């Protein structure tokens, strides 16, 4: 496993990280979830991602329990705040109240004393940004959070946040978590270059386009038994990628991968890691064997000719 800096921070994280969205605390049994996390740790993954919103805290409980057997200093754990966690008017968003309360709740569910990386899961238009950033800064000063990040924010929102942090001497954002994969490259135009100016790394989710880039989905109506797509109530995340145009591209990408003696999954992950601005790619896994396949993408270097060939396929 290769490791990279988390943005411009001093902490190093595995190029491949393990997430828990739509998996742990949900359709994957807890015992199986722990086996997957164990396999990831054994394979050199030291970066684990979850969120309070994932299964209303159940994912945090599963991840925390699985990691409890390992030395706390041996891994980097990320979780998030923003989502609705109750029925009250203050049970969501990025107010100081919600952030402080949810940090404490996450720490209890995780059974930990601190969170390595705490994300603002989405942008909150109802809360002044300075209130949000000052609350996050206070958590850092209290030692409950080590680094802060944002997810699903625009380049303009991140630029404003950096400006406020610099003027108010608040702890800076070190990482952004966006969706990014061969079939969704929106962040390349503005978000990645702007973040790079500020030393903010990218920890990308959906690097396999919700599994579509594994090559196992042949059509939107033919989902394999036992897959996340079959179980998830959020099938829109899958179906938006399952177009005839994309399936045609995936068939050609599969041949490129075969010529390199790689799986399509490994090719898709290696393509993301070609960019030094990416600190880590978050994978999901419902079986330990998927970890074995995915981690082999770390350290794979794609030649200029191969990258040009991939670019040609993606631009068709």
Residue-averaged pLDDT: 94
* N-to-C CA distance: 33 Å
Q: What would you call the shape?
A: globular
* The CATH C-level class name: Alpha Beta
- Total domain count: 1
Largest sheet: 8 strands, parallel
Helix segment count? 12
Strand order of the largest sheet: 3-10-9-8-7-6-5-4
What fold name goes in the CATH topology slot? Answer: TIM Barrel
Q: From the 3D coordinates, which CATH architecture would you assign?
A: Alpha-Beta Barrel
Compute the CA-based radius of gyration.
19 Å
What does this structure look like?
The structure is a single chain. The chain has 316 residues and is of the alpha/beta class. The protein has a single domain (3-215, 272-300), classed as Alpha-Beta Barrel (TIM Barrel). The chain contains 12 helices and 10 strands. The chain has an 8-stranded parallel sheet, covered by helices on one side. Strands 1-2 form a two-stranded antiparallel ribbon. Helix 2 links the parallel strand 4 and strand 5. Helix 1 (30-42) runs parallel beside helix 11 and helix 3 (96-110) packs parallel to helix 4. It is globular, with a radius of gyration of 19 Å.
């Amino acid at each position: 496993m290769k490791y990279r800096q988390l943005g411009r921070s001093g902490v190093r994280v595995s190029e491949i990280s393990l997430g828990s969205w739509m998996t742990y605390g949900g359709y994957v049994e807890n015992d199986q979830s722990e086996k997957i996390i164990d396999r990831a740790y054994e394979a050199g993954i030291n970066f684990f991602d979850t969120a309070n919103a994932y299964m209303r805290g159940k994912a945090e409980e599963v991840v925390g329990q699985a990691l409890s057997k390992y030395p706390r200093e041996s891994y980097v754990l990320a979780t998030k705040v923003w989502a609705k966690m109750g029925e009250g008017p203050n049970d969501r968003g990025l107010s100081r109240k919600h952030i402080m309360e949810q940090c404490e709740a996450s720490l209890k569910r995780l059974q930990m004393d601190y969170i390595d990386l705490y994300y603002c899961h989405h942008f909150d238009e109802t809360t002044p940004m300075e209130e949000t950033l000052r609350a996050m800064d206070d958590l850092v000063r209290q030692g409950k959070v080590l680094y802060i990040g944002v997810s699903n924010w625009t380049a303009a929102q991140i630029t404003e946040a950096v400006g406020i942090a610099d003027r108010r001497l608040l702890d800076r954002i070190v990482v952004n978590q966006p969706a990014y994969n061969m079939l969704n490259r929106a962040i390349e135009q503005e978000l990645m270059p702007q973040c790079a100016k500020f030393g903010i790394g990218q920890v990308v989710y959906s690097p396999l386009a919700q599994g579509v880039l594994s090559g196992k989905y042949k059509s939107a109506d033919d989902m394999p038994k036992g897959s996340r797509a079959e179980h998830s109530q959020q099938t829109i995340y899958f179906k938006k990628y399952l177009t005839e145009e994309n399936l045609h591209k995936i068939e050609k990408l599969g041949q490129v991968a075969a010529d390199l003696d790689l799986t399509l999954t490994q090719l898709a992950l290696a393509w993301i890691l070609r960019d030094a601005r990416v600190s880590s790619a978050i994978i999901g896994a419902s079986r330990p064997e998927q970890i074995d396949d995915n981690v082999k993408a770390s350290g794979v270097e794609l030649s200029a000719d191969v990258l040009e060939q991939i670019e040609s396929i993606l631009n068709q």
